[in-house]
C-alpha cells in the first residue's frame, strides 16, 4: 500500500533539504506555535500554486497518525456518496428504508439531511454508546429516541446521524464500516488505514499518537486515552496524518480519487437552511463551508481526546491546508496559524467569530434553566449578582455574556480565553427563549413544572 507521502502524483511533497526560504518560514511558524501552545507534536501540509509543503513539529515523521475525531465524518460522507455514485443509495432515501427498527422518529430523516446535520437527530445516545456498546445495542436505542426538531427545519450537529450512516453503509455493502472505508476510499487515495478503535477491541499496533491534555497556565502536557467506542466508529474513529488529510482534500480539487466530480461538488455545496452557528458559515453533504477573502473554502474540524485536527479546501484555486496536533490546545494553535497564513498571503477560509466578545451585556435572569439535546444537558445559571455560568455535562464555562442577535460568549476553561458559546433561539409565536444552539447542537429548553 502506498505511503501517505505518495498520496498523489499531482501534489509533490517538498522535502526539508529542498525547502525555499518560504518553506523555512513555514517550519519556524509551526514550531513556534507548537511551543507557544504546549502542543507536543504537529504536522502541517499547505498546497498553494500547484506546490505542496509539508512540515512537522516535535519528534514525529510526516507519516505519523493523529486521532482525527469528527473529520472522520467527512470520510463517512464520502463513502456514502460513493454508494450514491454506484446507484445503491439515493440522498433522498429515509434512513428507515435501509435500517429496520429505528423507530418512527429516527427513521424519518433522509440521507442528505443526516449528512448536512439537518435531520433533527440528537447529538448522542449516551448510555447506548458506553464501553459495552455495540451496533445492535445502538440501533435498539434508536427505537426509543426522539428528534430535537423536525427533519429539514434547521441545523443541529449530530454524531448519531453519522453512526447511522455508517450502519447504512454496512447494510448496503455487506462489509463493516472499517472494511468499507479502507477498501473503497482509503486504499483508493493511497492512505494507510489507522483507527482509534476497531471491532472486538483489537487494534493494530502503533496505529496512532497519543493525545494530550495541555494545562494552559503551566504548558504541561499529560497523555490521555481515546474513549470512543466501536459503536460510534463512523463518527470519529479515523487516525490520519496531515498528508492523509491533504490526499482527501485533493479529491475535491480535481485530483485523483474515487468520488466523481459532481458528487464531490455536491458534498461542498451549502444546504439551504443549514446554519451551523458557532462552527462554520455553511454546511454541505459532509463538508462545512468557510468564507475566504477571494473564495469559499470547504473542510472539517476534528477534536478527539487531546487532539485537534483541521482541513480546509479551496477547490476553485486548488489550495489545501491540513493541520494535525496532539494537544488539547491545538484549536488555539489553529486560530493563530490561520492568522499567520493570511498575513503571508494565503487567505485561508475559517469561521469568523462575532466581534466585541469582551463588550457584552449581562443576560436576563429568565434565561436560567436546563436545555437538553438527547442525553446532553446545558445548564444556564444567572446568579443574583449578575454573574452567569454555562455548565455542559458538569464542565463549567464562566462569565456567560450576551452579544448581538441572542448569541453569547463564555470563558474557555482550558485556556481562559473568551470564546463564542452559542446563541439563544426564540419561539416565533411567543417571542420567548425556547432553545439554545451551542457547538452547533440545538438543545430545547426544559420547562419547569408549574
Rounded average pLDDT: 89
The proportion of residues in beta strands is 15-25%
Structural class: alpha+beta
Characterize the main sheet.
Answer: 9 strands, antiparallel
The portion of residues assigned to helices is 10-25%
Shape: globular
Number of strands: 21
**Distance between the ends:** 64 Å
Unreliable residue runs: 1-18
Biggest sheet, strands in spatial order?
A: 16-15-14-13-21-20-19-18-17
Task: Give your account of this protein's structure.
With 450 residues, the chain is α+β, with helices and mostly antiparallel strands. It is 24% helix and 24% strand. The chain has 10 helices and 21 strands. The model is unreliable at 1-18 (pLDDT under 50).
Essential attributes:
single chain; 450 residues; alpha+beta; 9-stranded antiparallel sheet; 8-stranded mixed sheet; 10 helices; 21 strands; 24% strand; globular
Question: What is this entry, summarized?
Answer:
24% of the residues lie in helices and 24% in strands. The chain contains ten helices and 21 strands.
Secondary-structure blueprint of this entry?
Elements: E1 13-14, H1 21-37, E2 42-48, E3 51-57, E4 66-67, H2 71-85, H3 111-115, H4 135-142, H5 159-173, H6 177-189, E5 211-214, E6 221-224, H7 233-236, E7 239-240, H8 242-250, H9 261-268, E8 282-283, E9 288-291, E10 296-304, E11 307-314, E12 319-325, H10 330-343, E13 369-373, E14 376-382, E15 388-392, E16 395-397, E17 401-402, E18 407-411, E19 418-426, E20 433-438, E21 441-446
Parallel strand pairs: 1-3
Antiparallel strand pairs: 2-3, 2-12, 4-7, 5-6, 8-9, 9-10, 10-11, 11-12, 13-14, 13-21, 14-15, 15-16, 17-18, 18-19, 19-20, 20-21
